[in-house]
Zinc transporter ZntB
Amino acid sequence: MSLEQGKTPRDNVEFPKGAVTMVFDGNGGARMVDADSFAGFRAAHGSPAFAWQHLMRGHPDAAGHLAAIGLDEFVTDALTAEETRPRCTVHEDGVLLNLRGVNPHPAAEPGDMISIRLWVEAHRIVGVSVRALDALEGMVSAMLRGHGPRSPGDFVAKLALRLADRAEPEVAELTERIDSLEERLLGEDDGEARAELASVRRAAILLRRYLVPQKDALLALEIEELSWLGERDRAHLREAADRVVRLGEELDAIRDRAQLVHEQLLDQRAESLNRRMLLLTVVAAIFLPLSLLTGLLGINVGGIPGAQSSWGFLVVCLVIIALGSAVFLYFRKTGMFR
């Protein structure tokens, strides 16, 4: 079966919910073809042409279709696994590559990254994802406009770069949020700031959890001795890995800055608590001798000074005021209020 009967390229393509099949001429050209003809694709001897088919793992016959196009059980199980982490595994003359992309849904959690599993050979690529990803949509549109990959390695590099491009706004947003938190650090009410800080730290940790292993997967592929991986492909893979490395470094910086802000918030809270405790201590220290005096005058025994005098209460009040003022001035002179 041949792939010569292709569909007419369009400038804008709606990414199908089922399978996407494309054939590339190795010179930047690409066209969409019938999905059922992927299994029969054969590139001419010496031709740089290759084909790509992308499936959704949730399709009920996804595993059966992967087996029908000639993939062995090891590859099929890896492409349809429930949970994956970014990795690069060489199997015969092909590579199993797991990447992660940011979930474009506005309500998605930062750690809810969509996995893309790839089986890459010299003349064909099989991709599987759990959900649709806007990076793939944009990539398909660019391919149909004449910006297709020139080799399977170039395909992987372009995809990795697009995934990094989609992750950059998320990292930039985290940077802006930590900047805002640092500006609000001196505010009186830090309750909201602590909640925001926890959210930023969690998002940075979850994004870094997948981006750093993704860098390792791309670098591992770049150094593998594969017959279909050329020097140009390796250079593009290094570029994609460098982009992911930069994102990882920015996430590390965000995490470190969040830790510093957290420590400053704790110091600010401790300082506020210390000021309140100092105030309570000074008040207690001022009223301690006054309480002693009033306690002595209030005992129910004879001989209390001024008990029979009409000026007794006034004298006691003046003594209390004088004693309290003396204690207050003493504490102020010794620096207790600083």
User: Anything to note?
Assistant: The helical segments are 62-68, 73-79, 134-144, 152-183, 191-223, 231-297, 312-333. Confidence is low (pLDDT under 50) at residues 1-16. The longest strand covers residues 94-101. Strands lie at 20-24, 30-32, 50-56, 87-91, 94-101, 114-120, 124-129.
